[in-house]
TrEMBL record:
Full protein name: Pyruvate oxidase
Domain Thiamine pyrophosphate enzyme TPP-binding positions: 381-526
The UniProt record lists the keyword Disulfide bond: no
Matches recorded under InterPro entries: DHS-like_NAD/FAD-binding_dom, POXB-like, THDP-binding, Thiamin_PyroP_enz_cen_dom, Thiamin_PyroP_enz_TPP-bd_dom, TPP-bd_CS, TPP_enzyme_TPP-bd, TPP_POXB-like
Native source species: Priestia aryabhattai
Signal peptide: none
Keyword field: Oxidoreductase, Pyruvate, Thiamine pyrophosphate
Domain of life: Bacteria
GO molecular function, one term: magnesium ion binding
Length: 573
């Protein structure tokens, strides 16, 4: 047995799990643990944020970017409460996150002490593991279990740490627990596999809808799509699994999606869902047979009535299916979808190549595209900006980071900070609206402090554009969506970074070129026109009430110089 303090033993656990970054804000009820972190600062870097919400959002983004657990820290009371938004983002998107929350010393618990809050109750809904450390001896063991559970259940694990615990002396076993998680791999029933093979064999117009569960199976997905002659549509958080100009990629689905994806769903006779439980039933086909592949059996048929469920790892199962299928000779449906997509890109490029002042948001994205590295980390905030990036940014090998299911404004900057810390050698870019950026802009100072050369693009229209158009489409008058004007370039300079203010189209390219060469944190403040995000409204997360008939009206009545898919198919039959 070895004599040490509970806090030092906890440091050993963190290092065993290769935890090298913790985001948070120090304070009175976590000070003893902070002193332990100070002693390990060469191996575990503490990133002091200006608001705990940013710490939690950064931890969630760190997990999404790296696959490693993200860690955030706070005092009890107000600090811990501030974490919740970022933690719900992690919960919603299945990101493993560890919370180390301070608490008043054990002797003061239950006495309505200063800043005492019932943290176990506060964190109960958001967590997959939620315990208060009641004895110094249990601290390292509970920490081990918290980390294991966060990884195993892909969620938030919380440890509430009374401030007297870390400094208490304990005896620990000299044997070090093994820091790994046993993975449970499910295999599909052979009968279900046989049914799926048969359905795919006889499908005339198969369509694949792929989500984040296919991220680690890029090659297998492409091979499967080629073998069965099926176009692939991606959910928003899965953008970039295949490059946007890949011949099988039809882009995103839904109100921020493409016309070809919409029409392919209208025509398909077999929907194959891979690693997604896509929530918007109104954009999925009516009456088509459906196969759903997911590693989590509880997701099968959860939101869409599937005919065949396959429980298993997407990489393994796709390889199995591809190996047992013949090459589909009839490729008419795929080829017409590809023609449709070529026409879509031509239409999009027309919008992008317009020259106008005020600048339109869709004109900004091509200039960004020119300076973004092939392996960059691109974080996108929530709002109209999501539409412009989903439709106009052509992913190659970049990593796309967003708050998907929670859809919280303010996610862009914290993700860019996390991306640069996770991969210092890579370019990290955030694209935000002025509404989302102003929610967390104080932490641009954090990027400057830690010398993180990130680029933040702010599409500045002085309003909450998404909400304005939500109100309009519901028949309401615009109310309280104006934000007022702000010069974010001057703000960046006041923080110690670089700011570029762009008000004319002719200034765009130069600003982006200069930002790409900077070795400090940069804000490009682009003043953009009040432009509705076609087809008028984005819908994901809590903004999910926009009806399908609006989408139909846009794609059927909006002037797009593109023949409908059905007409093209009839010509080929």
């Amino acid at each position: 047995m070895i004599k040490t303090t509970a806090g030092k033993a906890a440091m050993s656990v963190l290092k065993e799990w290769n935890i090298d970054h913790i985001f948070g804000m120090p304070g009175d009820s976590i000070n003893h643990f902070m002193d332990n972190l100070r002693s390990e600062k060469d191996e575990i870097e503490f990133i002091q944020v200006r608001h705990e919400e940013v710490g939690a959002l950064a931890a969630s983004s760190y997990a999404k970017i790296t696959g490693k657990i993200g860690v955030c820290l706070s005092i009890g009371g107000p600090g811990a409460i501030h974490l919740l938004n970022g933690l719900y983002d992690a919960k919603a998107d299945g990101a493993p996150v560890l919370v180390l929350a301070g608490q008043v010393p054990r002797a003061k618990l239950g006495n309505e002490s200063f800043q005492e809050v019932n943290l176990e109750r506060v964190f109960d809904d958001v967590s997959v593991f939620n315990h208060r450390v009641d004895s110094p001896e249990s601290f390292p063991h509970l920490l081990q279990q918290a980390i294991r559970t966060a990884y195993a259940k892909k969620g938030v694990a919380v440890l509430v740490i009374p401030d007297d615990i870390p400094s208490s002396t304990i005896k620990i076993d000299s044997k070090t627990p093994i820091a790994n998680v046993s993975k449970s791999i499910s295999h599909s029933d052979p009968e279900d596999v046989a049914k799926a093979l048969l359905a795919i064999k006889y499908a005339k117009k198969p369509v694949i809808l792929a989500g984040t569960g296919a991220k680690h199976a890029k090659l297998e997905l492409a091979q499967f799509a080629e073998k069965i002659a099926a176009p692939v549509i991606f959910t928003l958080p899965a953008k970039g699994i295949l490059p946007d100009h890949h011949p099988y990629n039809l882009g995103q689905l839904g109100q921020l999606g493409t016309k070809p994806s919409y029409e392919a769903m209208e025509e398909t006779d077999l929907l194959i869902m891979i690693g997604t439980s896509y929530p918007y039933r109104e954009f999925l086909p009516d009456g088509a047979e459906a196969i759903q592949l997911d590693s989590d059996a509880t997701q099968i048929g959860r939101r869409y009535p599937v005919s065949i469920g396959l429980v298993g790892d997407s990489k393994t199962t796709l390889s199995q299916l591809t190996h047992n299928l013949d090459y589909q000779e009839n490729r008419r449906f795929l080829e017409e979808c590809q023609v449709n997509m070529e026409n879509w890109w031509k239409h999009v490029e027309k919008e992008e190549n317009e020259v106008s002042t005020p600048i339109k948001p869709q004109q900004v994205i091509p200039k960004l595209q020119k300076i973004v590295d092939d392996d960059a980390i691109v974080s996108v905030d929530v709002g109209n900006v999501t539409v412009w990036m989903a439709r106009h940014f052509r992913m190659t090998n970049q990593k796309f980071v967003i708050s998907s299911w929670l859809a919280t404004m303010g996610c862009g900057l914290p993700a860019a900070i996390a991306g640069k810390l996770a991969h210092p050698e890579k370019q990290s870019v955030a694209v935000c609206g002025d509404g989302g950026f102003t929610m967390v802009m104080q932490d641009f100072v954090t990027a400057v402090k830690y010398k993180l050369p990130i680029v933040v693009v702010v599409l500045n229209n002085s309003e909450i554009g998404m909400i304005k158009y939500e109100q309009a489409i519901q028949g309401h008058l615009d109310y309280q969506t104006q934000l007022g004007e702000m010069n974010f370039a001057k703000f960046a300079e006041s923080c110690g970074g670089i700011g570029y203010r762009v008000e004319k189209y002719e200034e765009l390219e130069t600003a982006f070129e200069k930002a790409a060469l900077a070795n400090v944190s940069v804000v490009i403040d682009v003043v953009v026109a009040d432009e509705p995000p076609l087809p008028g409204k984005i819908s994901f997360g809590q903004a999910a009430n926009y009806s399908k008939h609006i989408m139909k009206k846009f794609f059927k009545e909006h002037e797009l110089e593109m023949p409908p898919l059905r007409k093209g198919l009839s010509r080929m039959l």
